[in-house]
Task: structure prediction
Amino acid sequence: MKALLTAFAGILMIGAVGASGLNAQGVSVRINKGNKSVEVNTGRGGGRIERDQPKHQPQAGHYITVKKKVWHPGHYETVSERVYVPATTKTVIERVYVPAETYTVRERRVDSCGHVFFVNVCKTIPAHYKNVEKCVVVPAHYDTCERQVWVEGHYDIVEERGWVKGDPDCDDGHGNVSHRGR
Result:
């Protein structure tokens, strides 16, 4: 308890004298005014008390909204539109696989004596592809159509927000000084 009272007495003395540190009977006290820290060491492990850094105070001022006239030059824009396409028919050519075919044909033959007789002959058509035309109906549908459109140059009014330093009661942000409430 005696060491604690000595520490408090040291703090009071530092405040009165303006010293930055004090050391007596195993008790040390240090105060830093720059970062606002206080350190008290009683010889038994001591303690450190820190206070928050002072917050940065913003400069006096206020926000204003300014309307500006901005020119946008003429340019081309791509416009997408949904277009209705009515039902149509179109001819489609497909390649179709035709498998090998075997068939019997009756052929007329003549022997060496001049007699005519008929024989069954087995013929084969090899497998192949052939083109087939088909008429297909395309149902009505919507399609996306893109085209280039010229947009004339024009002015726009754009609002911008800006910070104005100074007393908000003295300046309305447009250079007009008014002394409201004074």
Summary: Residues 2-50 form one domain. The mean pLDDT is 77. Residues 2-17 form the longest helix (16 residues).
